[in-house]
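User: Predict the structure for this protein chain, please.
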Amino acid sequence: AVDIQLARMAIVSFPLGNKPALFLSLVCVVHHANSLLLRDSLLGLTEIAWHVENVGVYLGSPSIIRMPNGNLLASGDHFGSGFHETPNCSVFVSTDNGVSWTFSSWAVSQYWSNLFVLPQDAPHAVYLIGTDSDGPSQIKIARSSDGGATFLSNESTVIFSFNETDDAAHHGFETGPTPALVASDGRLYRALERCQKPMKWGKGYEAVVVSGPSDPTNVLNASHWSLSASLPFNTSWLPEDWLSKCENPGYLEGNVVEAPDGTLYDILRFNSEPNVLGNWAIALKINIVNSNTTVTTSTSDRAPAMHLTFHKLVPFPGGHTKFVIRRDAHSGLYFSLVNPNNNIEYTDQRNILSLSMAKHPSGDVGGNWTVIYTLLMDDTGFSADDSVRYTGFHYVDWQFDNPDASGVHQDIIYAIRTAYRGAESYHNSNRLTFKRLSNFRQLLVDENDTAAVHVTGSNFQISPFCTGSGCLAFTNRDYVWTDIGGYLGVQASEGRWSFTRIAGQGTGEPANNASISVAVQSAGSVYVINDGIEADWLIDNNFSLLPLMQACYRDTKHSCLSVFRKEAKVGDTFTLPQKKGGFAGTMALVPRAKLT
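Assistant: Here is the predicted structure, written as structure tokens:
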């Protein structure tokens, strides 16, 4: 039942009007005041909020943050032809690690905003930064001093306004809920876009970056912020043969990201309607003219002056829609949750959500962005065309979560703008949802952490562990490896891993007589693959299943083998068991550089 009393309390606390449509909107959001796991779904989504689908009001702009007291906060806003009220940001709280969510507050006249905390601030302080409306608007920051329970007008500031009369070339600003980054220089950075006149969505955006103090005593003081010069999109950046494919080339919804060397980039979504080039992003370099941030007086504590320059086109799965990039402090790797456009027939595909990874935000070092895991796929039973038409898991914000005793985060939590089971289109989202990827580091198999081993025996071959043509999975079949999960797949595609290839054992064929012995010569991780039939041996030898990892090959069933790991010390030896009466045996995975 709808908690009418809670709805009434919300209206009293945030008097935004008395129209019936406003009350309906409030009730629909508060309806799931104690939202739990979404029913009639196999995806494990927890519903943060839902809105009735047929009134032209939709939910968007999700953001998520872990508060110092352990609570989770999520935020979002409304959009659509049926929404006529003041553009506000709704904030929800979970006190049980995302198992359930309740409505907490509004930030009035706050839109397209992301949640963030400052490391030097009080434990209950949390911020939103974005715009103050849903059109070309002013840039605004708001603070809550009570963990998101209230966002008061005297704790909000328009940090950059605009004057239509004085600026004949521009409207105001637009953005999405992209990250606010506290960089290594100690300052806070956020990317937005400025709107050209006349405004045309997509191609009419100019990239800008704002910079302000991370000191909580000054962050709400507009005089302590600076704004870069705006940079219009330039079609000369594109290969000539792209221009005939793009009806409306442009960029938007940028992310400020810091590279390992301290260089700052703005990585933007590449609008390439009809998105036949949907897996690209644009990287701009943020050039800091004055990096002196040591002066702290109110008159001279100014952000460094900035200007943006084109850096490169970045191969980026899902670059056609909004994404968030964050860097893992432990591994130094960069991650993003993306909607890869994997079928050129679909001009804007958002029904698959994947985890991608790179060593450098612009792909300059160590290879391009690569999908390493599929997080969500539509389970409605729609046809492929209808799934793309009606289902969207997009505009995701996310955070690293669940640190272990040494402070290394083990999970990823994410909030999703969700069009699913009832939405009128993939774009017009009827839900905000939450999910957790537990133990994501299982996906980060790294050759540098493995043991050096010596492999001996008979009836096997040391073969490249790779995917595609020529990457045979067995000695007596033409099955090839088609999908290798996680970072292991990235390294395998670079030719850095080998495996002990054996014969598959089909029905009526002779038993697999491979003999494979492994001797550990330096301490580290040892990996094997099989179908889990040898469970007793795996347990007895301290191998652990990596449930997020698989190695799949192309046969009539597209079969997959599981990946197991153990930590081994110098001198350990073991012989891999070979299943009798089935098809796949047990094979060792070894980096080429660690194989003797």
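The mean pLDDT is 89.
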